Amino acid sequence: MLKSQVERHGDRITATANSTARAEQNGTQEIVCKVTLGDESRETRRNLTIYSFQGPILTLSAPSVAEGTIVTVTCTAGARVQVTLDGVPAEAPGQPVQLQLNATERDDRRSFICNATLKVDGGILYRNESVQLRVLYGAKIDRAKCPQNFTWEEMTTHVLECQAWGNPDPELQCVKQASKVKVLAGTPFVVRLKHHGTYTCHANNSHGKDTVTVVVNVQARNPAVVPVLVVLAILGLITVSAALLYVFVLKKHSVSDIYYVNRGSTTCLPLRSRPADQRLGEESS
After folding, report:
1. Is the CA virtual torsion 139, 142, 147, 148 positive or negative?
2. Peptide linkage before 147 cis (omega within 30 of 0)
């Protein structure tokens, strides 16, 4: 019997009861509501399904392991729950499922997913859980993205495109074998003659290292280009000077003029300029 609270509303009464479902009550339970008035009784019945959906619980034997370590992945859930780990189902509902693998760098950041299903009262309930594995491995240089021979022209900007990967993230630097000149991979820089030579590129982290030899050929700029430019500049200066001199002399002659005094009269007259064609005509006559 449930402890009920009865309320009266005119010619109607309402009974309300609260109950907590317990694990041992899993399954279908029948709820009966019975009303008695005088010597007459009536009742109504409803089915209540109680279930426990525990999990799924997905665990790794270690969340972070070194390359070459055996890792166990386990997925469990409560009774009557069917679990499937990365497509591999458990043998029966309520049973766990496990996977084992030899961790490699390809498993780094790999996600495992466990799906759980429970059939309840003709329907299916779903839950899932995921976990990610971290694999620690040594640094490696990508040979495909780090050509072993470069040819660059002096005073041009280039990038040494070498790349490395690993977990933890590695450090990568290239050092010239003779002079210890360093070139930062992936960073643009202006190529100079001092960069010509053979470099050793090192990538390393706490789990290993890798080395690649790179040859950088720096071509000097054509030395004949500078004298030619100087000669062209001198010729241009001479041409411009000659042109300016010609224009200056021509302008000086064009503004010069001849003035004549009329001696037949004692009256002072103002001097005036005559057109050049008129002066030429008078001189010829």
Report:
1. positive
2. no
Q: How many CB atoms lie within 10 A of CB 77?
A: 27
The HSE-up count of residue 84 (CA atoms within 13 Å, CB side) is: 9
- The span from the CA of 138 to the CA of 163, in Å, is 14
CA distance 76 to 127: 12
Q: What's the length of the chain?
A: 285
The model's pLDDT over 53-91, given as tens digits with 9 standing for 90+, comes to 888 999 999 999 999 999 999 999 988 899 999 999 999
Residue holding tokens 């009920």? 4
Domains of the chain, earliest start first: 57-137 (2.60.40.10), 142-219 (2.60.40.10)
User: What pTM did the predictor assign?
Assistant: 0.60
Average pLDDT value over all residues in the chain = 83
17 closest CA partner among 48, 40, 42 = 48
CB 35 within 8 A of CB 106: no
Question: Residue 252's pLDDT band (boundaries 50, 70, 90)?
Answer: low
Residue 172 has pLDDT above 50, yes or no: yes
Q: Which two tokens stand for residue 108?
A: 């780094």
